[in-house]
């Protein structure tokens, strides 16, 4: 592993770097010079610092050579560290590699030995070995190229053949890998099919099919085929119908007629990146494929687009934004502008580019909460879907909602066939399997497993799973945000999820149900109770507020979503509505803004989250109003939807963080700090007790202890406590811990330093502040990259298939200035 500072210095001395990095180096040297001068002055004034070097010039030289080991302030140290990272391409490049994987015509067809026994399948249903055909650049020192791993994840089903009878539309998916140093690396792949014109390959598939049909006709099936035949009749009318194992719908597609059919083979183009900017990578790969010139015309070469994404597009700095230009949908069109933004460190939630909107659309609110509970308790979680991208979205989304905790165990949202043996490991994991994999059907029956069928919106929970604290109120707040942004999803189950409590025995039942409630009768009963409670709240609010809701200025009444059994909360809700009108009036007269520490907040459960945590001032006044306006809602472009998804992500993630802040607002009082040195503590921390769990649990509501007692034993919680203790010795504590502690301080500031454990539910109030930071980055761009320009002197007029690109221009970084 290269030393990062040495790697940065070598990059600067060995070749000319881009203008953007030269500016960074200039800022870095200025900061170094100022620090060295301050060290020199302090030495000349007779300071007794043991680390200083006698003499002004010696101090300056030493400070310069050591990259300023002793800056004058923590702020300068933070800036210095960030500048060092920006000067290193490891931390600044958007993409490390561009990879092409597919069929190697030189080696021909090879069976994929990692795909298992597939001789009982038609040759078109078998997996063959794929290879990296090319990758650019050849290698980067901070991320060595893993040919086998990247090829396996870029084409997770192996090399497949299809005919024109199949669906051969390109499909995009993301994937994640964990390097030896524990750092996660992301890949983005577009899989498409190209026509095979090589007669040898076509003849080989035809020969394999003839052999397969002959074996079926002669009864020389393998053991696997014999087992399949026992489950259903096998037709001998081949090749006309080609019904194998009773799979009639796919029988015609599984036959390849060499005289009539066109043969297609899978190929993939991929980006390997350090940061998960999924939308930008997807847009780049899809449009790059569309820009493949299939006939002479206007446009620039594929190499120009790839060079731009590899060497000219940089990652934004924390708290900054950058405008980049991606390939258009057609070669003759101008490039598409896209803004990439990066949240600030220690003050905002980390980057999440995958849309949480899709997570809730795929699974529903209750299923997401149940899945989150299983992940928090470090259960074995297996995801199943026919779409690899769905597996990745669910995996990345659910682990991001753990913040401030980090999933420390096996994580493989797309598990290739070669790694199916990982499923037997007796350790916690989050893994995803394609629905066509036999292992997904076998393992899905395990009793101790959390099995999620994404396509069917079904979750099978482990036995004796405790319920998440304040689960119903938590779900209601999430549903309010989903309604606020008009997220399209299956709403049929939501009334029963929010109000069908008779089946649960209360909102905080100790054991969660393993099935999602359904049925027309339950939904009808829930809707009636929901309407009765809403009318009750409106009546109470009118009785004390003087006038109808429509006559109260500045108050937007939303449908109440609350636990119907908790009628004792209704007066508090009504009181909040009255005080909210006063707060709005105070703000109009120059009072404190929403979210300020002086603002008094109610602890009422649910029902008015749209007003407390407002993001959009044009919110639907009711669910019926939302439905009526949805037809008039303008269609967003792909880029506009991306920005909207980031807003939705922020609102939802703040709600989840708010739950953890309230759950553990007093955790630091129960941390057992060591009285020994750091090295001694590190060597013995596995045997030391770092947290007083029994005292912490005694302060919690009894019906929450079932969940909390198990979570306190998790590795995630232990890591957070370890980081809290390490903060005593570290000059810069863990960034996620800093944000978590900061939110706890804000909560105490609102309720007082001596606040006790709250038994009622308080919604999130801070998402608007973080939303403003995001909007500012979108509206005030810090850096702009110039659009891709032609780098080839002569380019090909058109191609029949996606070609191998010019190595000479893509394997090295040229000196260019492409930043404004």
What's the helix and strand layout?
Blueprint: H1 4-14, H2 19-44, H3 56-65, H4 74-87, H5 89-92, E1 97-102, E2 131-136, H6 147-154, E3 161-163, E4 171-178, E5 184-195, H7 199-218, H8 223-231, H9 248-251, E6 263-273, H10 278-290, H11 302-312, E7 321-326, E8 336-341, H12 356-363, H13 365-376, E9 380-385, H14 388-400, E10 410-412, E11 429-434, H15 438-443, E12 449-453, E13 458-460, H16 471-484, H17 494-499, H18 520-545, H19 570-588, H20 609-612, H21 623-630, H22 638-663, H23 678-684, H24 693-698, H25 705-711, H26 715-726, H27 735-751, H28 767-779, E14 783-784, H29 807-810
Parallel strand pairs: 7-14, 9-11, 9-12, 10-11
Antiparallel strand pairs: 1-2, 1-6, 3-6, 4-5, 5-6, 7-8, 12-13
GO molecular function: guanyl-nucleotide exchange factor activity; small GTPase binding
Biased composition (Polar residues): 58-81
Domain UDENN: 112-731
Question: Can you summarize this structure?
Answer:
The chain is of the alpha/beta class and 820 residues long.
Task: Walk me through this protein's architecture.
It is a single chain. The chain is α/β, with parallel strands linked by helices and 820 residues long. It has 5 domains: 4-91, no CATH class; 97-315, no CATH class; 356-460, DENN domain, C-terminal lobe (Rossmann fold), CATH 3.40.50; 471-653, no CATH class; 667-756, no CATH class. It is built from 29 helices and 14 strands. The strands form 3 sheets. Strands 1, 2, 3, 4, 5 and 6 form a 6-stranded antiparallel sheet that branches. A hairpin with a 4-residue loop joins strand 12 (449-453) and strand 13. Helix 2 runs antiparallel to helix 4 (74-87), helix 12 (356-363) crosses helix 14 (388-400) and helix 22 runs antiparallel to helix 28. The longest helix is centred in the N-terminal third of the chain and has 26 residues, at 19-44. The protein is globular, with a radius of gyration of 30 Å. The two termini are 34 Å apart.
């Amino acid at each position: 592993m290269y030393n990062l500072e040495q790697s940065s210095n070598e990059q600067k001395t060995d070749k000319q770097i881009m203008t953007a990095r030269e500016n960074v180096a200039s800022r870095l040297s200025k900061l170094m010079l100022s620090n060295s001068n301050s060290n020199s002055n302090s030495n000349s004034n007779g300071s007794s610092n043991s680390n200083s070097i006698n003499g002004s010039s010696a101090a300056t030289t030493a400070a310069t050579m050591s990259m300023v080991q002793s800056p004058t302030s923590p702020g300068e140290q933070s800036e210095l560290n960030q500048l060092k990272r920006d000067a290193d391409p490891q931390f600044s490049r958007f993409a490390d590699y561009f990879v092409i994987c597919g069929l190697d015509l030189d080696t021909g067809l090879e069976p994929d030995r990692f795909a298992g026994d597939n001789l009982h399948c038609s040759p078109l249903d078998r997996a063959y070995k794929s290879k990296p055909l090319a990758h650019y650049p050849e290698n980067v020192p901070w991320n060595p190229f893993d040919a086998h791993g990247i090829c396996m994840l870029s084409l997770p089903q192996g090399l497949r053949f299809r005919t024109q009878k199949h669906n051969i539309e390109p499909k995009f998916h993301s994937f994640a890998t964990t390097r030896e140093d524990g750092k996660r690396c992301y890949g983005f792949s577009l899989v498409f099919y190209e026509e095979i014109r090589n007669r040898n390959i076509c003849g080989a598939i035809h020969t394999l099919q003839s052999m397969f049909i002959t074996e079926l006709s002669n009864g020389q099936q393998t053991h696997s085929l014999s087992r399949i035949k026992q489950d259903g009749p096998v037709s001998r009318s081949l090749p006309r119908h080609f019904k194998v194992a009773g799979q009639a719908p796919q029988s015609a597609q599984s036959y390849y007629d060499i005289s009539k059919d066109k043969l297609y083979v899978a190929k993939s183009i991929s980006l390997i990146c350090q940061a998960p900017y999924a939308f930008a990578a997807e847009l780049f790969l899809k449009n790059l494929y569309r820009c493949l010139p299939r006939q002479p015309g206007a446009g620039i070469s594929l190499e120009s687009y790839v060079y731009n994404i590899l060497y000219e597009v940089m990652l934004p700095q924390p708290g900054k934004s950058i405008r980049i230009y991606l390939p258009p949908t057609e070669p003759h069109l101008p490039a598409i502008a896209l803004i990439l933004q990066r949240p600030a460190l220690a003050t905002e939630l980390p980057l999440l580019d995958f849309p949480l909107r899709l997570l809730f659309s795929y699974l529903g609110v209750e299923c997401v909460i149940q899945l989150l509970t299983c992940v928090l308790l470090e259960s074995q979680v297996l995801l199943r879907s026919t779409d690899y991208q769905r597996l990745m979205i669910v995996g990345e989304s659910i682990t991001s909602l753990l913040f401030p905790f980090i999933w420390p165990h096996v994580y493989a949202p797309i598990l290739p066939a070669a790694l199916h043996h990982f499923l037997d490991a007796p350790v916690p994991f989050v893994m995803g399997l394609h629905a066509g994999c036999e292992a997904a059907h076998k393992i899905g029956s395990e009793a101790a497993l959390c099995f999620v069928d994404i396509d069917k919106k079904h979750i099978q929970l482990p036995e004796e799973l405790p319920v998440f604290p304040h689960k119903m109120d938590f779900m209601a707040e999430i549903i309010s945000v989903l309604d606020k942004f008009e997220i399209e999803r299956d709403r049929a189950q939501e009334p029963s999820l929010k109000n069908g409590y008779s089946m649960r025995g209360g909102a905080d039942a100790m054991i969660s149900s393993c099935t999602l409630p359904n049925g027309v009768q339950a939904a009808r009963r829930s809707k009636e109770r929901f309407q009765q409670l809403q009318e009750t709240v409106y009546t109470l609010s009118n009785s004390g507020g003087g006038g109808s809701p429509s006559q109260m200025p500045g108050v937007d009444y939303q449908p109440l979503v609350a636990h119907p059994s908790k009628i004792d909360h209704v007066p508090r809700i009504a009181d909040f509505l009255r005080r909210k009108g006063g707060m709005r009036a105070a703000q109009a007269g120059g009072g404190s803004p929403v979210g300020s520490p002086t603002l008094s907040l109610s602890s009422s459960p649910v029902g008015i989250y749209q007003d407390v945590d407002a993001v959009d001032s044009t919110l639907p006044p009711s669910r019926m109003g939302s439905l009526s306006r949805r037809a008039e809602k303008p269609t967003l472009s792909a880029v506009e939807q991306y920005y909207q998804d980031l807003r939705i992500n922020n609102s939802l993630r703040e709600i989840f963080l708010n739950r953890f802040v309230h759950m553990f607002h007093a955790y630091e009082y129960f941390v057992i700090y060591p009285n020994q040195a750091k090295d001694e503590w590190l060597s013995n921390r596995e045997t030391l007790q770092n947290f007083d769990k029994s005292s912490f649990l005694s302060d919690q509501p009894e019906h929450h202890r079932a969940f909390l007692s198990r979570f306190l034993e998790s590795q995630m919680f232990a890591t957070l406590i370890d980081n809290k203790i390490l903060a005593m010795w570290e000059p810069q504590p863990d960034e996620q811990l800093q944000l978590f502690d900061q939110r706890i301080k804000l909560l105490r500031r609102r309720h007082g330093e001596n606040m006790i454990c709250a038994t009622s539910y308080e919604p999130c109030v801070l998402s608007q502040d973080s939303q403003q930071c995001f909007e500012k980055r979108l509206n005030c761009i810090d850096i702009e990259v110039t659009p891709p320009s032609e780098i080839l002197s002569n380019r090909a007029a058109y191609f029949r298939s996606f070609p191998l690109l010019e190595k000479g221009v893509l394997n090295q970084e040229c000196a260019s200035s492409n930043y404004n």
